[in-house]
Amino acid sequence: MEGLEKFQSPGKGRGLRALRRFVIGELLFSCPAFTCVLTVNERGNHCECCFARKEGLSRCGKCKQAFYCNVECQKQDWPLHKLECSAMCVFGQNWNPSETVRLTARILAKQKTHLERTESEKILSIKEFESHLDKLDNEKKELIQNDISALHHFYSKHIDYPDNQALEVLFGQVNCNGFTIEDEELSHLGSAIFPDVALMNHSCCPNVIVTYKGTVAEVRAVQEIETGDEIFTSYIDLLYPTEDRNDRLKDSYFFTCDCRECFTKEKDKDKLEIRKLNEPLSTEAVRDMIRYARNVIEEFRRAKHYKSPGELQEICELSLDKLGSVFAESNVYMLHMMYQAMGVCLYIQDWEGALRYGQKIIKPYSKHYPSYSLNVASMWLKLGRLYMGLENRSAGVKALKKMQSVFQTSLQEVGWTALKLKLPGRLNNPSLKWNFLCWLPSYSLACLSDRNYHGTLIDPD
């Protein structure tokens, strides 16, 4: 990793530091995944090995559930796929380990055959990861034990396990240092381990962003980086106000951020904008609504696992009505629930409804997020696809150009490729098959803010 070094960051532990200057858009380094797993929902759409999305993938002849670009990808993945192949045949529909369990099983298998450092561990090895076991509450400890039980249940014939204590450490390490890979719309594709990328510390004012080219992570500058500067990324979604961001950091990563953004809280007022009323609202009324917003966000997160789309849509509509009595539409809690509502609309193929929510979201998104935000770019992409599908070509072109401008502003050296526009679902009708070409990144994109975080939007596809 030329131009970079591992060092002890004051108050933060290990970190990554620049040994030379990097300009905006410049690639600092790339890191292939130590190992990765494609999410089960994307099987058949993406290659299990390289995560490429394409039609006509070849199916594994034994389990019939894994798909590959070609023989080369299948052979490359076999040492790890064989952990699951026979088990899927035996368990059938009862085969349901979590992605964390699947990823951990692959780590154990690869560590057994790769005794030396891999190309993914040039400056930090998996064994050096922090596990933070001493900081876990009883609920998190119980979840780890459940994962260990699932690992034994589904993989007992293929893995030589270390003792329970070592497995606790490994699951703790994966929970704190795992990443999710997402596509250009920030829909979840899978989970991975990128040891060298995990070395970077967090800031709510990051100077780099992480993108994925298949299963290779690429770290690029989004600010000018001078010699001696520490390299910072963001572990979390930067949309939310300071208190919420730090609650998330404490819960998942066991620290509080002391960056400039958290110290000044200068964006919090806009992010928590109150509706303009004839009678000013009391401080207590605003606090009560913030508490309600946080509760309904958590309620919705849980409800997605067991409620129907209709029920989820009702939660969104009722909560937006209540939140809107106090908050302006640009308030981040309103935006959060609009985003969920848009996801439900996409899932049930209510394209007009999805477009209405997206149109409300995009302007405040552009204000609250940094100029280089992939969240903003992915929203423009969603809007572009919806406009095109609803036969509003001029608006679609404008939206897609807006998406492109986000990347050209901050990621100047990123390559672009012309791809056919993928229209949503049933909107791929003959009248729209004029093969419109739009510019999309030539690889999948994801914020490190979604590090080990499965996104909140229902996958529309």
CATH topology of the largest domain: Serine Threonine Protein Phosphatase 5, Tetratricopeptide repeat
Helix content: 40-55%
Strand order of the largest sheet: 3-11-10
Compressed to H and E, one letter per element, the order equals EEEEEEHHHHEEHEEEEHHHHHHHHHEE
Number of strands: 14
Mean pLDDT: 88
What's the structural domain tally?
3
Radius of gyration: 22 Å
Query: Could you say what the CATH architecture of the largest domain is?
Result: Alpha Horseshoe
Distance between the termini: 37 Å
Largest sheet: 3 strands, antiparallel
CATH class of the largest domain: Mainly Alpha
CATH superfamily of the largest domain: Tetratricopeptide repeat domain
Explained architecture:
- By secondary structure, this protein is of the alpha+beta class.
- It folds into three domains: 1-33 and 194-233, SET domain (Beta-clip-like); 36-189, Annexin V, domain 1 (Orthogonal Bundle); 268-432, Alpha Horseshoe (Serine Threonine Protein Phosphatase 5, Tetratricopeptide repeat), CATH 1.25.40.10.
- It is 43% helix and 14% strand.
- It has helices at residues 71-91, 99-113, 138-155, 164-177, 195-198, 242-253, 260-264, 268-271, 283-303, 309-324, 332-347, 351-368, 374-389, 393-410, and strands spanning 4-9, 13-18, 27-32, 35-38, 58-59, 67-68, 178-182, 188-193, 201-202, 208-213, 216-221, 232-233, 416-420, 437-441.
- Strands 3-11-10 form a three-stranded antiparallel sheet. A three-stranded antiparallel sheet has the order 4-8-7.
- α3 crosses α4 and α11 (332-347) packs antiparallel against α12.
- It is globular.
- The relative contact order is 0.12.
